[in-house]
Amino acid sequence: MKTPDLIGSAVTNTFRSKTRTILTILSIFIGAFTLAITSGLGTGINAYIDDTVSGVGASDAMTVTKTAEGAGDPLATDEPREYDPDAVSTGIPGMTVTALTPDDIDTIQGIEGVIRVDPQRNISPDFVQFEDGTRFVASVGSLVAGQTTVLADGTEPDNDTADYQVALPQSYVQPLGFDTDADAIGQTVTIGITDALRTRHSIDATVVGITEAALASPTGSSILINATLTDALFEAQSTGIPAEEADRHSSASVWFDPDATDAEVEALKERLAGAGFTGTTIADQLGTITTVIDGVVLVLNAFAIIALLAAAFGIVNTLYMSVQERTREIGLMKAMGMGSGRLFGLFSLEATFIGFLGSAIGAAVAIAAGTGLSSVLSGTLLADLPGLTLIAFDPASVAAIILLVMAIAFLAGTLPAARAAKADPVDSLRYE
């Protein structure tokens, strides 16, 4: 029997006992469906994290601060904290850090393993306004090393241009007087800021992008500005303040070797700690989140694998029954010259085909159900997380699931296939 004939015969034989085969396929379907859904869940969430992770920072940089004495959660203790004249706000109510001075920046730059240090400036504008419209309270969202933001339209402000550029939050578009996100691009808005002498300065900037809220959005509802506008606003804000007072920073972005190992990064953190600084990398910020997500998906996948193993016993039972029922047929095939290898292959192909049907149907239904569920959730419960597709399907992952189930089915079919291959033709022909 040639290979194409062998495959055709295996497919035909699979449905000799339709009810038994359908029940076996159904059990495989449940496992494959569960595995595809859980895999899609992991793919969707991890893709969302990948899309927004750049809003947290680059993998070859860390945020460095100098922690103030007694700084931390103001709710952690009822005792008042001692006043620190060198403390500056982090932007979080009650959270302060000791300001980084130019000498601190030089110290950090001199630490082994540090490639570059970018001090972070704190800017507090009063408002943002379009033409003569309503003035809205504005804050400046700061980007630490390697951060980006999720854009609804346009581009991020360019730090290499001499023009003043700004990206507005999507929630500000219509209140400022624009009909759509696209209408705001290219328009000029005015940013007001007050200096230490209570003099108000107004600086015009071009809108180049519209940001949308995201899980790890660095700006939230704040405006995002480029380096040139940052310098202009900072200079205006610092008018009337002595240079040594103005040049104080809440944090700094420290860049290190992108090829550094985990051990080398930890060593750099220790050297910074020895100098009185605290370094926090993107892995520190996201490590717990990704670990929990991966753990949940792993547990769900484990349940799916258990279902598939249960289905494997169904395949064994189905094929054992098939071998039993076709004993005389097996004897006849062997008597006509069909080798044990071909006979083994015939029953193995039947098992594999059953696995393919169950997994393919399960994956197809999972994709349809997952896509529909994600669509519904994105407009209801998950509406506050724009850009999130809860259940997403990677073609490679779906194909891998189908192949995995087929492999399990093949292994499950080896026992009855081996029994058929070892059957004695004389005894088989005499079987009643």
TrEMBL record:
It is an enzyme of class 3 (hydrolase). This is Macrolide export ATP-binding/permease protein MacB. It is a multi-pass membrane protein. Its main location: membrane. The chain crosses the membrane at residues 21-42, 298-323, 343-370, 390-412. It is found in: Cell membrane. The keyword Membrane applies. Belongs to the ABC-4 integral membrane protein family. InterPro entries: ABC3_permease_C (IPR003838), MacB_PCD (IPR025857), Macrolide_Exporter_MacB (IPR050250). It comes from Microbacterium trichothecenolyticum (Aureobacterium trichothecenolyticum). The gene is macB_4. Residues 21-267 form the MacB-like periplasmic core domain. It comes from the Bacteria. One of its GO terms (molecular function) is hydrolase activity. Keywords: ATP-binding, Cell membrane, Hydrolase, Membrane, Nucleotide-binding, Transmembrane, Transmembrane helix. GO terms for cellular component: plasma membrane. Residues 302-425 form the ABC3 transporter permease C-terminal domain.
